[in-house]
Amino acid sequence: MNDTLKLISDKIEESFKGAVLSAEELYNFNVITVQHEHIHPILKLLKEDEALNFHFLTDLTGMQTADEKQLGVIYHLHNLYKNNRVRIKTYFDINKPEIPTVTDLWPSSNWMERETFDFYGVRFKGHPNLKRILNVDEMDIFPLRKEYPLEDQTREDKSDKMFGR
Amino acid sequence: MSKKENQHLTPPPDTMEKEYTTLNLGPTHPATHGIFQNVLKMDGEIIHEAVPTLGYIHRAFEKLAERRPYAQITPLTDRLNYCSSPINNMGWHMTVEKLIKAEIPKRAEYHRVIIMELSRIADHIICNTIIGQDTGATTGFLYLFQWREHIYDIFESICGARLTTNICRIGGFDKEWSKDTWDKIHNFLKNFPKELEEFNGLLERNKIFMDRTINCGPISSKMALEYSFTGPNLRAAGVDFDIRVATPYSSYQDFEFTIPIGTSGDTYDRFTVRQEEMRQSMKIIHQAIKNMPEGKMHADIPNFFLPPKEKVYNNMEALIYHFKIVMGETDVPVGEVYHSVEGGNGELGFYLISDGGRTPFRLHFRRPCFIYYQAYPEMIKGGLLSDAIITMSSMNVIAGELDA
Fold first, then answer.
1. Which residue numbers of A have CB closer than 8 Å to B's CBs?
2. Domain presence at residue A135
3. CATH code assigned at A62
4. Segment A92-119 mean pLDDT
């Protein structure tokens, strides 16, 4: 565990005991998984703490876990002064996909959260305008979820038996 | 005095209701260079409110990528920012190389740098000439645009395609560049600078152009950071952040170049920053050619890099590898990678989760346009409609990247 990663996870642990589920370095990138209950105050801490100062939201996106029971939201934060990056991940139940918005911390998260809602159905509580952004408004599914396969499953001329997905 | 005669006098407060006009700018408007719709609430010629609509050319690349082997995702990245598709291609190759931990020879990396800088020039040519075009100066547009064609000729002689290039491969280049390619590059390097300066002379200190663009669609550095601006638009606002310097990839640490920054983040600054970046790109290309290292053009990763065709026909191993790569049957490590490159518009990021299958488990493109375009309503608010048009062209919003 490198110094930056240790500093970040210690700071989070200090304020929110037991919130850090894992902290590791993957491909030269600091990755911290946290409990979704504390996600908003943790991001606020990362942004506003003097020593950490992760003031720049590089990316916000969603994902679905392999067992298809959980959704995840992934935040990429960046401290431009020290050129440190960190990836904050949080997972929650797919049947209750609710997480607080971070539009109050970063205005840029507005469309990224809308995109995540559009594709994964994550409801960002407190978002000023949570509606679909890239797909048509009439769409009633969340297309990037794994339960919606890309190709028509009734087709018999294309088989995945040999080569997997 | 009757009521009718009185009407030109100021009415008492709260007796008149202010009315706004709704104007649909787009989706296909000749002045917006792409499929953008903005529903504008106008107070005369002043924009009171703007609501952008997105998704007109959404093609679900992230979903498509979940069904495609790694090599087949490169053509998808072409179609993100199609004005500088080689940068997208390289970014994707480097992401996969990071995942499989491949060591790329310096020679291939220098060649990549040349291509990336050429496409950055092509991207900036489009943006800057279009700013000229939208302010009414078509001449510069016609003068400089042919040099974009020369850049596309170079790409064509390397990979056979001009716009959607699918250039290079995971691991490096398939062959050395031909003499024809180098001739074209040298011709470009020799003749482009003076054309660029001629174009620059037409606009940079042109009184009409300056009056038109200075203080048009400005953004402060604080707001630019809050809106996660990257690339030339952030630098025009005065923040010297460039991925090529912050986290060098593909041997960018070997090159000497400066990052131009602006002060006020208005259209004029965005224009001048891009102009200077083109000159810096030329400088990088000159250095890359001068210090070109010897060595191989591709990494030694037979599991990912296609063998030469004659070996496929005559050699057992080569045939096996060829089959494995084409069918997407090579083993990919389980992992999670984020790689970003400095695209024409800013930080182009690839967030890739691999579960060891033949296709990515999840692939997300961090598209700079998509993120900074949301500041557009804020930037044009209170300005004139004509300013909104050139603000959009100077932000270089590319529909393909916006909608993915």
1. 26-27, 29, 31, 55-59, 61, 63-64, 66, 74, 76, 80, 83, 85, 87, 106-108, 110-112, 115, 119, 133-136, 143-144, 150-151, 163-165
2. no
3. 3.30.460.80
4. 93
